[in-house]
Amino acid sequence: MSDAPVTHIDPAAFAADPYPTLAHMRRDAPITFVPELGATLLTRRDDIHREEKRVEVFSSRQPDGLMTVLMGENMMRKDGDDHMRERRALFPALSPRTVADHWKPMFEDAARQIIEDLKPKGRCDLVTDYAMPVSAAALIAITGLCQMSHAEMDRVSQHMIDGCANYLGDQEIEARCHAATALIDRHIDHIFDTPPERSALAVQKSAGLAMDSIRANVKLVISGGQNEPRDAIAGTAWALLSHPGQLAMIRRGERSWVDAFSEYVRWISPIGMSPRVVARDDKVNGVTFKRGDRVFLMFSSAGRDEAYFDAPDVFDIFRDTGPAIPFGAGPHFCAGAAASRCLITEIALPLLFEALPGLRLDGPAPFTGWAFRGPTSVQVTW
């Protein structure tokens, strides 16, 4: 382990709301070892932004890490040429041009059908009834797993990210994750000979990637591509409904859906951290890291760093969110960022508020998670 100062956490309280503890860490021990997680956390924005790019020290290669063991060695768990080769193979499915020209019309058709089905009901849970199927429909198209249902896509994604955050070793969580990856493999096998055009399956197959890599990368796309948009759609909608003055400014054209989304993912980061393993002994800000140490880069903490954001615990769509790094930085910047932004800011949010007049909250919205965070329910009426 590193020789960083030690900070103990209550895992349950950290999952319920990590932000007070992260603020304490930023102030008193910005690089700190947390015994309950078996990892050293980097919590200040500049340290994370700088060290994430030093992959020769803070490596993504983690052959014994939870993601690799449970989902296979995907491109996120590779560095250098190996990472870039697979990233380039996947790029044709996720490029901004492909998203705008190919996927956006499909995203919009699916979202409109979902909202039309909701309209007569007068109430719903935005997480399960809107954000979940909208995200799942988009992800089914992108992956090429066209026989998978919305509910299946949401379930396997949730069970995989639960598995990847299972640092306490819960056997039931691990078993659910294995069942999810097995189901994905069956869907891949079913469609592999004739994958849909431009899908993640099709472009990787065309690039000649090995089957193990194709499977692992499809699971990677699912693990981040379902829950992050789902949680950001429902969470941003909740934030705007909780701040009606800011919603009114968007309706008047004084601010945009992009502003709201960017502020939300700064404020409540759907992907809260990225794990790394120390590849060689090194020192950062006086803290010595030893080869093999586990490190967590806390993107959620970077988004509330007081050095960059005034009143960081406040939702404010007027602020400059540029310094926040909710999608990461450097070579491992989220490959699906363009698809996520398109789905959320160009389709899901404007359609929701346009189609459901008088939309309002109908009770509190509970949140959970620290490695991945989002609302578990957002009850609304209209």
Automatic annotation (TrEMBL):
UniProt cross-references to InterPro entries, sorted A to Z: Cyt_P450 (IPR001128), Cyt_P450_B (IPR002397), Cyt_P450_CS (IPR017972), Cyt_P450_sf (IPR036396)
GO molecular function, one term: heme binding
PROSITE patterns per the UniProt record, alphabetical: CYTOCHROME_P450 (PS00086)
Pfam families: p450
Domain of life of the source: Bacteria
Keywords: Heme, Iron, Metal-binding, Monooxygenase, Oxidoreductase
Family of this protein: Belongs to the cytochrome P450 family.
Protein name: Cytochrome P450
